[in-house]
# Entry
Amino acid sequence: GNSVTQMEGPVTLSEEAFLTINCTYTATGYPSLFWYVQYPGEGLQLLLKATKADDKGSNKGFEATYRKETTSFHLEKGSVQVSDSAVYFCALRDNFNKFYFGSGTKLNVKP
Amino acid sequence: ETGVTQSPTHLIKTRGQQVTLRCSSQSGHNTVSWYQQALGQGPQFIFQYYREEENGRGNFPPRFSGLQFPNYSSELNVNALELDDSALYLCASRRDRRNYGYTFGSGTRLTVV
# Structure
């Protein structure tokens, strides 16, 4: 079956530090991969996506590359800001448009 | 485009009661999905509707049911509420067109006491 595993949090970083949040997946077929961000009390916002192997999604300084050989989609940012503090969800979407989400990783960025 | 709007934002119900949650999608969004997000967890797929018919369902019992209407609104109904139904319920919708992504609403926080 399909599933997503992401690193447990919380992750605490100082401002301007480098961020990596690991995400691996198990899937049948050819899923699309996503990172969503959730701020306190809000719904999910799409951060970036990749629809096929070797695609790189990027947005607001965040990047993730769809690695089929390692079944991974790790999220990275070179220099985090306090405003990046949120919960980040890795997800895959199968061929039936059903999303499978990881359990989320809370990021705390300190000034 | 306007966003996906869910109502109410918060709701408290008693165990055994029934609840209806609502979602108003953007015009042209023929596909709508509902997700349950328990505290500290990722969202779990409940079901999906396309042009007013259910076309996919997750591992949720039949007391979770839904409707989709021609005006791009939809409902999630839960009967015989249990304490474990306490969660954030999210709806997400999209257009039919290839490569169009889903837009998520901000959710309804349901508390069952």
Q: What stands out?
A: Chain A touches chain B through 21 residues (CB under 8 Å). The two ends of chain A are 41 Å apart (CA to CA). The CA atoms of residues 21 and 28 of chain A lie 23 Å apart. DSSP finds no helices and twelve strands in chain A.
